[in-house]
Amino acid sequence: MYALARTFALVGVEAEAIHVEVHVTSGLPSFAIVGLPDTAVRESRERVRSALVNTGFDFPQQRITANLAPANLPKAGPGFDLAIAAALLVATGQLTRGVLERHALAGELALDGGIRPVAGALAMAEGARGLGLRGIAIAAGSAREAALVEHVSVTPLEHVSALRELSEGTLDPIPPDPGKLGAVPTGDADLSELRGQPVLRRALEIAAAGGHSMLLVGPPGVGKTLAARRLPSLLPQLGRDELLEVVRIASACGEGLLNGGIGRRPFRAPHHTTSARGLVGGGSPPRPGEVTRAHRGVLFLDELGEFRRDALEALRQPLEEGQVTVARVNRAVTLPCQFQLVAASNPCPCGHGPDSGECDCAPTVVSRYEAKLSGALADRIELFLGLARPSAEDLSEGPGERSAAVRARVEAARRRQEARLGPGRCNAEMTPFEVRRHTRLTPAADLSLAAGHQQLRLSGRGWDRVLRVSRTLADLDGAEEISDDHVTEALSLRRRSAR
To answer: Please, are residues 181 and 210 in contact by the beta-carbon 8 Å criterion?
Structure first.
């Protein structure tokens, strides 16, 4: 007696088709799962046994072999339970074979037969559509997420007993839900709360408009963290394709739909003890790191000088290419990571800064602290701001401009960039060829850029980044040509002197 079911294994953030082959034959009672299963998959034997017995199905007292193919791909997690159980029931004649021919299945079984959600529901629904199946039967808790995928039916299952109804064709799928792009949630984090830092407010608007990375350096309490956490409130809402990318990644990481619903961009703020693998991803099978979880959103590294240098150096490829490749012995997985980096750091370990007159850090300690940010990584950051403590007069001012007003200007600038570069793209993603093509400078701007190159000793990459920021400033002003003022402001934002 043999049966074949289809399910999926997560590889990075994509779903790879898995054929679950179950063979039941005479012999001493046993239940073996083969195909490079991890501990969670091997334990599926006990979950499947208890779930079927407690639901009223017969569990065969025979020799059972379940093969998860392809056999050379490591299998991890409990998401294979439902497919193994369904194939076993078909192999023993307790369900009709049509249930396996029409649907992929994914879910973790509870001992009482309940079905729990698993990570990667959206990617699995896309995989079922790619296999040409009618749909996917999945845990009810994952159904709303899977229903974001068009042209595939999603059938939610609360209990393993529902496999009977699914087999008989009496269980209706839920209607597709392509997702409603709601208004950008603002919550309590509004830019109006940032006071006494007009240059920082301006830099946040520029960063949001062009998708540029930022480094904020200043003593504690000047508003670095407050500003970084308000950047998402300035960013435009996600488009549909971006939405699916973000939800697919969140789902693969076991987070399901993002808090606050659809339309919210990710904001990731890992602790400074995070390792290089935690930042860029890794493991076996490879799992997404923080840079991938921040895809289409913001990655905030607070206390940059406290991060391990090897962890920071691992950011160089993701920042440059917008993707990271995690190579293992049997395969290499490429993960998307188009994120906006915002880093904040004190000028020295004590926080006051060597020029403040209050710093008691030894010069060697300050040098070692600053050396955490290598020149190669710093060259990939577009906006540098050295911040000073605001005055009492600055702090006593009323609330500044609200996020909604700034976001309107950001969205207008982004529309100009998408018309120039394509849907979902911004100036920070321009290739060197596109930088040359889309940055037309006035003669005065050419002279200012040449003078800035000499003064700041810009590298070729630094030159391109100044042009990208200048292009964003022109977009904010609605100008086709980059003026001297745009270049001058872009150059001023690559200096680390306190403002």
So the answer is: no
Question: Does residue 499 sit in helix, strand or coil?
Answer: coil
Distance CA 94, CA 92 (A): 6
Alpha carbons within 13 angstroms on the beta-carbon side of residue 329 total 4
Q: Classify residue 423 as exposed, middle or buried by CB count within 10 Å of its CB (0-12, 13-18, 19+).
A: exposed
Could you read off the pLDDT of 161-208 as tens digits, one per residue? 999 988 887 887 887 655 544 444 445 588 998 888 889 999 999 999
Identify the band that residue 480 occupies on the pLDDT scale cut at 50, 70 and 90.
very high
With a cut of 80, say whether residue 438 has pLDDT above it. Answer: yes
The length of the chain in residues reads 499
296 three-class SS:
coil
Nearest to 299 by CA among 285, 288, 284: 288
pTM above 0.90, yes or no: no
List CB contacts of 451: < 8 A, sequence separation 6 or more: none
Q: How far apart are CA 8 and CA 17, in angstroms?
A: 5
What b/e string do you get for 153-174 counting C-beta neighbours within 10 Å, with b at 16 or more?
A: bbbbbeebbbbbebbeeebebe
